[in-house]
Hints:
By secondary structure, the protein is mainly beta. About 10% of the residues lie in helices and about 40% in strands.
Amino acid sequence: MTKTLHITCVQIMLFIISFTLNTSGQDFRWGERGGSTQSAGDAQVETIYDMDVDKNGNVYVLSRVYKTDISVGGHTIQGYGNKDVLLSSFNCQGKFRWMKLFGNSIGDIGYDVCTDKTDGVYVVFDMMAYNDSGYIDSDSTIAANTTKTLYLVKYDTSGNLKWTRTPQPDTIPITSSSFTGSIDMGIDEQGDITWFCQLAPGEYGGTGGLVVNDTSDYILKYDRNGNF
């Protein structure tokens, strides 16, 4: 029993020494902060939804921000509503590259950002542009009075909008929005996007797409060109 305990203690000590040597060898490189100047209520829970890195080491951060004086990397913009979704990009040295803001006057929710093996940056978020217009930054405007809430957006790594997809049918009732939302997203080696969602009944992806009869979890798949 004593021998077993002694060996175990030696193993633990070796692990601690090895862990200490490995961690102490890592040098801090850079840090960045951002957010709005709001200081009350919901503004205290600004957060990062997701992050990814492209093949060149550029960093992409998807976060929740509030509308007043949103500042990232020394650049300030104004939001659309109380809760917006912000995509920010930095190079591998931490230098600010660009940012894109998504939202409208109603609260919006971000989920995932993913990069592919070529030049694509993909974002999924939920936005309800029912009472007023929604915005894909200054790149695209979503007309008011739509009950669609699911958005898949592709940018290139330089911040140029490539396409936007809203798979829900035009006739989806507003009551279905409570039962529809993004869950997760992934991209395979071929650049195909798998979008995991909860969907209410309807036809998704256009004519000939996925017909949903019961509210449940489903996967929507697009190629890198936005084809369903």
